[in-house]
Amino acid sequence: MEETISLQELFATLKKRLVLIIGLTIIAILIAGVVSYNFLTPIYQTNTQILVNQEKTDTAQLLNQNIQTDLQLINTYSVIIKSPAILDQVSEQLDLGLSVEALTNKITVTNAENSQVVNVSVQDPDPAIAVDIANTTAAVFQEEIQELMKVDNVSILSPAVVKENPSPVAPNPMLNMAIAAVVGLMLGVGIAFLLEYLDTSLKNEQDIEDVLGIPLLGVISPIKEDTASQTDSDRKAG
């Protein structure tokens, strides 16, 4: 016999296991909050900006050509900034004991479309170290690019600074707790339906008909204790 489940039965199952679902959701939120606030290391981010610009020229045509040249060079500069030629010196000057690969993972180089400004972002558990890495990387790049590319078109537009009360960019406890709430809710609903599926006890007349495959002819109503006691008393009196 093919079994079908109505929406009413689904809602009845959810209502029956509502305490379980809410409990798992709350537990998931609490675990995410505790882990986010007490066990995950805060990561801070700082930025320094580098301007790529040729020397001023007298004519507008030459100025436009220089700008287009700078824009074409920015992609190359973005690669050079994270190259061993730059990061080896950064690691040596700061004496951080970090390899080029470790520094590369901390640095992100971006620039807006058609912009001559290159943004160097650094993430580190220590905000002061993040600032040192960003500024040293920019300074070393500004110096070394003159030897590597034989150009002098790089200047530091905005150095990184240590903020008084920096806020970490990761982890995000509220986001983690929201994700945990969704996961906990889904887990609770899944377990609720699983328990209902594994529960093979007969709960009503329909369950009996489904199991036996025959129609139900009658039902014995439950006898209240007071009524049963009264009936026994009447029998003894008679």
From TrEMBL:
* Transmembrane residue ranges: 18-40, 174-195
Output the Gene Ontology terms for molecular function.
protein tyrosine kinase activity
Compartment annotation: Cell membrane
Domain called Tyrosine-protein kinase G-rich: residue spans = 142-194
Cellular component GO terms, alphabetically?
A: plasma membrane
Where's the Polysaccharide chain length determinant N-terminal domain? Answer: 3-94
Q: How does it sit in the membrane?
A: Multi-pass membrane protein
UniProt keywords (A-Z) are: Cell membrane, Membrane, Transmembrane, Transmembrane helix
Q: Which family does it belong to?
A: Belongs to the CpsC/CapA family.
What protein name does the entry list? Capsular biosynthesis protein
Organism name: Planococcus glaciei
